[in-house]
Amino acid sequence: MSEGATYPATGLVDVDWAGRRVRIEHARVGVDDPRAPTMVFLHEGLGSVSMWKDFPRRLCEAVGLRGLVFSRPGYGRSTPRAPGERWAPDFMHRQALDLLPALLAALGVDAATEPPCLFGHSDGGSIALIHAARFPARVAGLVVVAPHILVEDVSVASIERVRDEYAQGDLKRGLARHHDDPDSAFGGWSGAWLDPAFRAWSIESELASIRCPVLAIQGTDDEYGTLEQVRGIARRVPGTELLELPGCGHTPHRDRPEVLIEAVERFVRSRTWAGAR
Fold it and tell me: From residue 24, how far is each of 11, 82, 265 by CA, in Å?
């Protein structure tokens, strides 16, 4: 599959979440081996299954993993936001603590007996960190790429700039290729991040509960956060491996995919997860 191709063969599963039933778009990738560990991919604030393109497949095949990729509610082909729904400052906690466990159970991923590894990008990285902090025995490892552990001025300024771009129309047309309802995806994300109450959001105090191995990756030219985001993880989670990528922006799996795959492969193979090849 070419790097610009739309993501293949997605399915839908119904999940009870936040007092309603939502459908979740998902895809399985990687090796066809029931003994192989599972890696769950959590996308960025404007992401979806298709916006990953073929990166999850390439990574899982290189490392010997089964991969699960999904679009959170409000994104991709998943159930969009309800009319007038605004995401509260705790929206990432709700995804991490309620939706993700329900989705894994619905798809037959038994995190109690075979904990998956989580790969999260941006907001997805924050969700992965929150989930691992609350359920430390249910996560085998964390790969977080450009995660957020606190709100910085640079993050807010960049989102304000993107909001203006969205209003001009080109960004909306681009997102419409990946989301059934691009206004749902963009409005949920930007509305939450630009809510003045969100400036106090932080998960720094929660990170010390994480017990699994962590690989934290960020580009030095990330326009949505400084290196304090990943360095802050390393100070609070002993043994965290840091990878800072010179000349790379907010999306290393697009800008430096080969470097990212090699780093994740080294990280996984250095651990004791049964079945990693």
Answer: 8, 15, 28
